[in-house]
Structure formats: structure tokens, C-alpha cells
Amino acid sequence: MNNWMISILGLVGAGCLTGVTVNSFLSRFSLPTSVLPYEPRTLPKFKPEQRPLAALALVAIVLMSFGQVLWGLLFLLIGVGVWYFSKNGSRLIEGHQRSKNLVQMRELFPQALGMFIQALKTGQTVPQVLEYLSNELPQPLRQEFSLVCMEMNLGLSAEEALSKMNEKYPDFSEFGRFLESYKISRQTGANLTHLLQVLLNGMEEKNRLLRKMNAMTSQAKLSGLVMGLLPFLLGLVFFVMDPSLMVPLVTTPGGWGILCAAAVLESIGFLWIRQLLRLEI
Asked: Among positive and negative, which fits the CA dihedral 35, 38, 43, 46?
């Protein structure tokens, strides 16, 4: 183990030293392009964001050249995963938080719409109702309505401020319907309270059907999860009982092929069950 690790480090160090030396030599003694009778060709250069990937690929190739194919692939996969997360981690975390906020806002929006209707019935104007909601609603809807009120204080109308919130969350279909109802009321003079009450009744009926569907499909989801985890649990049991039965799966080409085929079939089964259980209202 120590010998081939020392050899790898020696090869990597020698390669880096050779590259630096050649690059320094060519930069000092290369001829100017004006005296060359042809267009010079330069070696392709890696962009700064591509250099970590090139280094990972080099180390993986060195590992594979020493017969450690599985360890080379594993190192490459882990390295690419770490590089991708370090590069896009903040964006992924922000997108996850945004999706989480959207789910919470969808759950809270019927309550917010009911409060909006009751406030309108008391004679309050739409800006006053939005100010009231920005103080009384739970998070994250409170923060979004606070931003709407802040933009109204800066000179925007209620319709423009609500439209900006709708552009921020294009997948928030419930809020989009609320905004369309408000625009229709302003353009045609229709009763906004009646329009919002019809919208609220439709949302409550949809949520009732969704809860019923989730209860009916929960058993099927649990069955799919158990069937998906069963091969891994059986493999763990066989490894504990007799490791010699499972070692060929990760040390021979035939075993690697079986694992790849199993992974492909597991993925197909997972996507198929997920598609069957996906119902839309």
C-alpha cells in the first residue's frame, strides 16, 4: 500500500514539475508570431473552474493504471460530487429553501385568503388589508407581504406590488389566481369579496381531495419504498452471514456489471412507481 502510494505521489509531482518547467521554457524562448511563416498552435488550456476536474481525472487515471479501477472510479465520483457542491452549493441550498418556503406558503394561503375576506367585509381597503396581513400571518407569508407593503410605501400601487410577488414565485398558482381576481375586480367593478370567496371554496375543496388522495396512496408509497430497499437489506444480511458471497460483486468485472444492471432496474422501477402515484387535480 505504501509503495504504490509513494509511486503515485512521485508521478504526480514529477508531472507537475515537468509541466511547470516546459511552460516556463516555452514562455521565455518562444519566437514572436510575426516571424513565423504559419499560425502557431498552442496546447488547450483549462479554465480556472476546470482545473480541479482535470486534477481529479489525472489522479483517477493514475489509480486505474495501478490496477485500482474501482478505487479510481470511486475517487473520481466523490471528487466530482465535492467539486460540484462547492461550486453550486449555495445555489442549491437557496433553491431548496425557496421550494420549502413555497410549500409552506401554499399551506398557509387559504388561511391568509380567509383573513383577507373577513377584513374586506369590515370595510378596510386593500392596502390596509395587506398591512394587516403583514403583521398577523405566520412566516414565510408574513415576510412576503411585508415586502409588498414596503414596495407600496415606496410608491407602487397594490396591483404592481402584488404582481412583483407573483413574478418572484411563478409556481405559486394559488396566489396567481388571487391576483387575477383582484385585477378583474379593479377592471370590471366586480365584487372582490365574492370572487375571493369562490376562490377560497375551490382551494379548500382541492386541499380536501389532496388529503384524501395522499391517504389512499400512502400504502402504495410505503410498499414501493420497502421493495426498493429490500435488495440492499438482503445484500447487507448476506454480507454479515458470509462476506465471501458478496465480495465478488465489488471485486470482479462481472459483479460490477450486475451492480450496474441492478442500479438501472432499480431506477426504472422507482420512476415507474412514482409516475403511477402522481395524480393531478
From this structure: positive
